[in-house]
Amino acid sequence: MLDLPLVLASQSPRRCSLLAEAGFVFEVIPPDNGLEDDPQLNETPSDFVKRLALRKAENVIEKIDRGIVVACDTVVVCNGEILGKPVDRADAARMLRMLRGTRHQALSGLCLWSKPGGCPAIREAVSTLQMIEFTDDDLEQYLHSGNWRGKSGAFGLQDRNGWVVLVEGSESNVVGFPMELFQEMSAGRATTSQGICRHPANGDSSCPKVK
Predict the structure, then answer these.
(1) Which secondary structure element, helix H or strand E, spans residue 96, and what is its range?
(2) For residue 188, what pLDDT is reported?
(3) DSSP state of 80
């Protein structure tokens, strides 16, 4: 049970909805602009999403006196390429043509960080998806709708147009916030007067550093 105020380090409507629908009461404090960047040299997709989740949490933890900050970053990975949010319509079209007819993954890095006294805990969730062979006309209609904006891989499972089938993993992770992992991480913490600390059974209490 969380005995500190919960702070969501995101203003994503989808993440807010998922937390609210699960019954959590929380405050929204978005991280500063400019924290998202490109993968570093030889950085894996897993390390990339966990690094960005940690950066967002670190930014917001400095803005509060007490609470549990939860931050998340989600990308799509297809044939080894990390697909973030498209910069424009042409970029969205490129991503969707790459995803068409393929099996690919949605990866989320999730960071929980309590204050005072806590160390950040960071894990990842992976979901596998299969996208159908949609037509070029279908693609043009979808691009015209604008639903690709702000979505990793230019597409969201929540669009519900039958293009994507969840093969394995969490549906909420594909939407942008892995609820099952969040509940597991918060339940797996030892709650003390100083907040949520790394549980002794989970290893040492060393804190990862933001690069």
Answers:
(1) helix 89-99
(2) 54
(3) T
Q: Is the pTM of this model over 0.85?
A: no
Q: Please tell me the total count of domains within the chain.
A: 1
DSSP bridge pairs for 109:
73, 124
19-49 pLDDT, tens digit each: 999 999 999 999 998 888 888 888 999 999 9
Q: 144-152: list long-range contacts, CB under 8 Å, 24+ apart.
A: 148/86, 148/89, 148/92, 148/96, 149/85, 149/86, 149/92, 150/85, 151/85, 151/86, 152/74, 152/75, 152/76, 152/83, 152/84, 152/85, 152/106, 152/176
Q: Categorize the per-residue pLDDT at 160 as very low, low, confident or very high, splitting at 50, 70 and 90.
A: low
Residue 28 resides in a domain: yes
Identify the helix (H) or strand (E) that includes residue 55.
helix 45-61
CA distance 199 to 74: 26
In a domain, 134, yes or no: yes
d(CA 151, CA 78): 15
Within-domain flag for 207? no
3-state secondary structure of 2: coil
Positions marked active-site? 73
210 lies in some domain: no
**Contact between residue 210 and residue 58 where contact means Cβ atoms under 8 Å apart:** yes
Note down the domain range covering 100. 6-202
What's the CATH number where 75 sits?
Answer: 3.90.950.10
